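Quick check before the chapter quiz. The format below is the same one you will see on the exam, so make sure you can read both the input and the output lines.
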Amino acid sequence: MIEAEDFIEIARKLGFQRYTGVPCSFLTPLINYVINDDSLNYVSSSNEGDAIATAAGAAIGGERAIAMMQNSGLGNAVSPITSLSYVFRIPMIIITTHRGAPGLTDEPQHELMGQITGEMFDTMRIPWESFPTEKADIAPALQRACEFMEKEQRPYGFIMQKGTVAKHELKNDRLVATKKTATEKQICNQHTMPLSTRNEVLKKIIDRTPIEKSVVIATTGYTGRELFAIDDRRNQLYMVGSMGCASSFGLGLALARPDLQVVVIEGDGASLMRLGNFATLGSYGGNNLTHIVLDNEVHDSTGAQATVANNVKFAEIAAACGYAATFEGHDIELIDQLFNCKNNQGARFGHLKISAGTIDNLPRPDITPVEVLQRLMQHIGTSF
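Here is the expected output.
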């Protein structure tokens, strides 16, 4: 058995100060230690996949990151592990617990995942080892992880057994300060017909995001492809998978780089997929984070099947989740009002109705995801 301090302080010396995750009783001592230490950073994610995406965003912002989760939540993390960290080659440490391990009496829901946890890592091509149980083994284990990540730029896993880390009391009972300021709300409906196209809105967003001071993250599908087609700038990143994770990814980058204005653009389908992340952004997001939902009420890039967005008040959800300012409406001038907002109490949110469809002969990026990421990181002055 080790102490939480044993692992985290050795990890700190290797540059790991950003932690994300969803709790598990096996992980409680590590999480408590990080929360208690104001010089360390912990993001309590609503979903294990969002924890992976936030850790990935922090990593490209120059922070070594560790994502922690119960093995039952590993399924929630499959998409961002395989289509974000793998595709873009983003390294991080992933610690997962071994609930339902063979020979361990546990709850029935852990039985199957307990049998296949290692196989899950193997299938996702993540090298892994058992989480160290002796203090003397911690530094060599972390060194192996770092050497692999530096060479391959991919995640490295640890599987933790029950009782590995001694209890550690939680002394700081609040992860983030309670938001006491009223949310600024604006409705932009000067006209409702015809709705603006995605292309028109993206051009306006480009005008408001100078290359030297901002990073623009576009969700998978038509949004990233149209942004590329309009102007392939070095401050842009086009998600090619991990649907719904653009906002949590942007949060990680915004936390790591408060000097940059981070703008996340996603559609209604992606937002609906991970609505829980609104609460995380509302709680942790600073005034350098702008979250925009372009809502055409369909899954456009897969044939325009309807979403349920016509029944969802995204801006009201954002306000209820603690965003500092929310804007909603049908008028493209919403974008200017959003970027002109002077509220500096936290993240800003814009929900704009747009028309369905895309431009003729929409191209796919002719630059690979790895090249896009490397270009962006060089632009903002970071490296793994």
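If your answer matched, good. The domain at 4-160 is CATH 3.40.50.970 (Rossmann fold).
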